[in-house]
Amino acid sequence: MDSALRLGLFYAAVFIGSGASAPYMPVWFRVHGLTGAEIGLLLSAPMLARAITGPALAVWADGFELRRSPLVVMLFVATLAYAAIAFLHGYLAWVACWFIATTLLSTVSPLTDVLALRRAAREQFNYGWPRGIGSAAYIVGNVGAGFLLARMGANVVLVWTVVAALLATGAAIFLVPSEPVHETGERTVGRERWRGLGGLLRDKEFMLAAFTVGAIQATHAFYYGFSALVWRKQGISEGMVGLLWGFGVAVEIGFLWFLEPWRRRIGPERLLLLGGLGAVVRWGAFAFSPPVWLLFPLQALHTLTFTATFLAGLQLIQRIAPPQSASAAQTVSSALSGGLLIGLATLASGALFDAVGAKGYLAMAALAAFGLIGAAHFARMNPPERSGVVNLE
């Protein structure tokens, strides 16, 4: 089995769980008595902490000989933490379990991206193919869990999430290639790894790119945390919610698999600009509770708001970061886009949902407008490639 397929199956094992937990675990918490503000705080806590936990876990992971070793450890512990939610009761216990599980699981993806990008460059395959397989599995999680939720109740979502995390642990053991952390095969001492992280944090261009990508990605906070609840208030069934989420990811897969030549032609700077523009339009329209028939074309903008922004961020970060800091660079960027910034936005989203319902999307549109400022800077600069470039194809 070639590396692209093995990595694709591993991405699938990871994303089939998050495809269920992202839209529907807020429903589980709501059914078990939490308010919107409490859910927002619970969801945002690990995101806010990722500014610290993400880079720290990346530095820790770079201390192993093989990249898959820390993936196995993190996924197994995440499985135990998700399972503990079913046996522990009370808000603080749930916050602690959710914090541990999602902190570890959120670090798996950027570390896998580093491995996949390196393999793609060496073996000449399109990074989008294995990542797209993972996105397809995300749809299975969206639709499958939504179907079961409507018929079996909220507890099925937690069961799905735990089983998927256990599946991902096995996939990390048996499917992830034996890629060394460092090309020389030697371990680096902790002091050297922390020094490389410090250099990244002092790089103004790197930090601007990371914050720009993070701001646009953070606009998904209200959608991730409360779209299912908003749509249920509109009378949209759980099954249709799953289809809407799945459709958004389906267009993402099409982008990853079939639009690679176009992506390469326009470049990451303009791709990032399109992602910001798409976010302003998408969230601005969602704020006015459009009918189901209009939700589908608006969901198609996910290919810009998430996928285009994600791919543009990967390539921009690679251009800026030196090769020896690849793991830390992608994890710091992920810690901002999927951590600190989206955590703050999620925290605000809980209160917004309680106060104004769907109109909370307007705050996401405003945040996207701020991200456009940084995107416009990179689109104007269109900087030449720096050392450490690894193409996505």
CATH-level-4 superfamily name: MFS general substrate transporter like domains
Low-confidence region ranges: 384-391
Span between termini:
19 Å
Number of helices: 15
Protein architecture, described:
With 393 residues, the protein is mainly α. It has one domain (3-180, 193-381): Growth Hormone, Chain: A (Up-down Bundle). 81% of the residues lie in helices and 0% in strands. It is built from 15 helices and no strands. Helix 1 packs antiparallel against helix 6 and helix 5 runs antiparallel to helix 10 (238-258).
Quick gist of this model?
With 393 residues, the chain is an all-alpha fold. The chain contains 15 helices and no strands.
List keywords for this structure.
393 residues, mainly alpha, Growth Hormone, Chain: A, disordered C terminus, single chain, 81% helix, 15 helices
How are the elements arranged and paired?
Elements: H1 3-31, H2 36-61, H3 68-87, H4 91-123, H5 128-152, H6 155-174, H7 190-201, H8 204-218, H9 221-233, H10 238-258, H11 260-286, H12 292-299, H13 302-320, H14 326-356, H15 361-381
